[in-house]
Write a structure and sequence with these properties.
0% strand, globular, mainly alpha
């Protein structure tokens, strides 16, 4: 083989390596993103118990959300520059987008607690915040399992844990909304809490969305 041919092959290999992500890079980004979701949920739960420090608590959650935005951006950049991805490109995009949505809803909830000057948390909101922490933790377990490529049944079991929390919160939301409309006489307060409830529910729904995508990936690769 000529020196010129060898140089050309090395150059082509170099270009190809630049297009291939390092092993588990996407999975590492997913895991980091999911961990930030857990952190945001925990901070929001803390905020419900420290509404007198709402501005400070909301700013902390916003910082976490900005960190997650950076992870999402890195994932999208890698997706667009990688020749080969470990799972379908559409699934990479969907997982990253839904993880980003979770923190968007968490940050929106925190912002409303501060902006609306909520002084005392309703009992149902505290339960929903606890459900959100549980949902993000269960969701992260499914994300971390994706990198290990376990059996599809194990992944489905992890996904069922997320879905169970979502179902529990659905029931809680229906009861909380009914009680809110029945007992709350001030329309402004009613609107405030209805929006807060819905943001919490949306965040938990997005956790289920992530689990559903990962379950589909596991079944496709079984």
């Amino acid at each position: 083989m000529s020196v010129l041919s060898s140089a050309r092959i090395r150059a082509e290999d170099s270009v190809l390596k630049g297009l291939l992500p390092k092993k588990n890079d996407f999975f590492a980004l997913f895991s980091s993103h999911a961990e930030l979701c857990v952190e945001g949920a925990r901070r929001l739960q803390t905020m419900f118990g420290k509404l007198g420090e709402a501005e400070h608590q909301a700013q902390g959650i916003r910082t976490v959300e900005h960190e997650a935005d950076a992870v999402c951006q890195r994932t999208m950049e890698m997706l667009h520059t990688s020749f080969i991805t470990p799972i379908e490109r559409g699934d990479v995009h969907l997982i990253s987008s839904r993880l980003d949505d979770i923190l968007d809803h968490i940050e929106a909830t925190a912002h409303k607690l501060w902006l609306y000057e909520v002084e005392e948390a309703r009992p149902e909101a505290l339960e929903m915040a606890a459900h959100l922490v549980e949902a993000t933790q269960a969701m992260k377990a499914t994300v971390d399992a994706l990198a290990r490529r376990p059996s599809s049944e194990h992944v489905r079991e992890l996904c069922r844990a997320v879905k169970q929390v979502e179902k529990q919160n659905d029931r809680l939301l229906r009861g909380a909304t009914a009680r809110l409309f029945k007992e709350e006489q001030d329309p402004k307060t009613l609107i405030k809490w209805k929006e807060i409830y819905e943001n919490l529910e949306d965040a938990i729904d997005r956790c289920e969305d992530v689990a559903n995508v990962i379950e589909g990936v596991a079944l496709e690769n079984a």
